[in-house]
Amino acid sequence: MDNDMKRSIILDNYSNARNRGIPDNSDDYIMINSNNQSCIDNINIYVKLKDGVIEDIKYEGEACVIAISSTSIISSMLIGKTLKEANELLGNYFNMIEEKEYDKELLGEANVYEDMYKQPSRKTCATLFARGITNLLKGKE
Amino acid sequence: MNREDFTILKDSNMVYFDNGATTLKPDCVRDAVIDYYNKYTASIHRGDYKNSLKVSAMYDDTREIIRKFINANHPSEIIFTAGTTDSLNDIVFGYFRHHLVKGDEILITETEHASNVLPWFILAKEIGVVVKYISLNDNNELTIDNLRNAITDKTKVVSIAHITNVIGDVRDIKEIAKECHSHNILLVVDAAQSIAHIKVDVTDMDIDFMAFSGHKIYGPTGIGVLYGKFNLLKELTPVAYGGGMNAIFNKDGYVEYKDLPDKLEAGTPNIEGVLGLGKSILYVDKIGIDKINKYETELRKYLVDKLSELDFITMYNKDNEAAIITFNIDNVFSQDAAIYLDKYNICVRAGNHCAKMTKDVFNVANTVRISLSFYNTKEEIDLLVNVLKNSKNIWEEIL
Ligand SMILES: Cc1ncc(COP(=O)(O)O)c(C=O)c1O
CA-based, 20 to 30 A from A34: which of A67, A138, B28, B114? Predict the structure, then answer.
């Protein structure tokens, strides 16, 4: 993917962030807050689980372009996945951000952040959602 | 003005607009710190050799420099601390913890910095005092009428910033003090944002306790001042105990403390900080605080006029006074805006500026803040405006 392509995917997911909003029937969702202590990104993540599958994800908050777009992209990828699949995807995502080995195929659109390791200060932005939902899913399998 | 006094401005094309966070240091302050190490290194009030005596004298002289600058009555009313936060904690936990009782009320505002909020919250938990808020007017300012309306028979303390760090409103401390004292209320002033920008005269304003930080007035970090009227400071129980503050003690646990100011400065102090601070105060005094205020006010007006011409910028405190402007580029998160400006070496602050309650006042949690100093120029503002005009390209630049 070239830079223009990456940029337009990121911007599209920022301006028209998918799955954004607070769920109407929030009782059906588990909520977790994710924030970056070193900056100001701050979102609440809502996840609806059923029979080991992620049925829906919502989120709301204030965060930068990297944090919001990555939340939009990854949340879209996780909806419909089993917990096992979700954790595998998230694990690969963290590996990519940390410049470790990862399965490129599995990450689809999230590959737009493949160079994020070059900007250490923005790694926390790119993992705002991934860290939050990983914590939320812990022990649910 | 006076840009030539700052090596950091000579050696780079940096535009420094984050003076509310910390100020740059003139060479004379740097030299004062280095001289202490190169020429004198010694502790104070402990040695009988020349360097120690010399440093002790310089340390004591600095107290007098500060006394004069804020027009306190006596040098013993000046206590060196680690900064505003440290001073405010001393005031709350050293004085008010021992002088307030359950049900007593403390008045603050929603635009205070965390360091003038959290200590009061903790005191409320510990001894049951109640923290209340004075409401602000439409311009987010504190009026005497609103203060009067917030005062009850239980109000014992009003604790407020002289200038707030997000709105930049300047409070009329003298009038506020009059109102407080007519109800037997003590006034605590957080002068962190005002000390370098407007005249602070603790006697004329009749301030009971005050705090400020050296690093916001062109001095070193890690040094600050706690001011208190002598009779109040005398009643401030030390928060730290150790060397330098005790007169005698024995193994049975008997202790006698030294008099002010030593009693409140336990341990070997931040000597380089004190000496650097003394130099920075002399430096500011030499330029003249009124001259600084006049120039910064003019610069602020220029900035506001220029930003007003940009229809994609929302300013939140156009009509306030101090040289602090908070704004957002429409549809751009403040941190992204700051990263974009940094590409052009323009340093601004993004976020909630440690005044997290302010989001309820502005209805927006995060903003970009520009805080000016006398070394900023109209040319720098023109550059900023040009970069903002090109911010259509922000995503090409930061992604
Ligand atoms: C209004 C106000 N009060 C208090 C502080 C705290 O100062 P320091 O961090 O130097 O203790 C600041 C600095 O950010 C401030 O702007």
Answer: B114
Chain A residues within an 8 Å CB radius of B331: 15
Look up B347 and say whether it is catalytic: no
Separation between Cα atoms, residue B381 and residue B308, nearest integer Å: 13
Pick the closest to residue B143 from B135, B154, B151 (CA basis): B135
Q: Do A10 and B399 touch (CB under 8 A)?
A: yes
Residue B361 confidence (pLDDT):
67
Whether B350 sits inside 8 A of A40 (CB atoms) is yes
Q: Is the CB of B165 under 6 A from ligand 1?
A: yes
Indicate the burial class of B45 (C-beta count within 10 angstroms; 0-12, 13-18, 19 or more).
Answer: middle
β-pairing, B324-329 with B313-315?
antiparallel
Asked if residue B376 has its Cβ within 6 Å of ligand 1, the reply is no
Distance separating alpha carbons of residues B297 and B344, to the nearest angstrom: 25
CA distance, residue B336 to nearest chain A CA (Å): 6
A contacts of B358 (beta carbons < 8 Å): none
Model confidence at A29: pLDDT above 90: yes
Q: How many separate domains does chain A show? A: 1
pLDDT score recorded for residue B397: 86
Mean pLDDT of chain A: 93
Residue range(s) defining the domain that contains residue A93: 3-137
Q: Using CB atoms within 10 A of its CB, is residue B29 exposed (0-12), middle (13-18) or buried (19+)?
A: buried
Q: What is the predicted pLDDT for the residue at B45? A: 81
User: Which atom from ligand 1 is nearest to the alpha carbon of B354?
Assistant: 14
Ramachandran quadrant class, B45 (left: phi over 0; alpha: psi -120 to 50; beta: rest): left
The reply to whether ipTM tops 0.95 is no
CATH number at residue A125: 3.90.1010.10
Per mean pLDDT, which range of B31-35, B42-46, B172-176, B361-365 is the poorest? B361-365
Return the higher-pLDDT residue of B122 and A26: B122
pTM of the predicted model as reported, rounded to 2 decimal places: 0.92
Residues A113/A118/A121/A124 CA torsion (nearest 10 deg): 30
Using a CB–CB cutoff of 8 Å, tell me whether B392 touches chain A: no
- Which residue minimizes the CA distance to atom 12 of ligand 1? B192
Please name each of the domains of chain B with its CATH number: 3-17+288-398 (3.90.1150.10), 28-286 (3.40.640.10)
Which run of H or E residues covers position A122?
Answer: helix A120-126
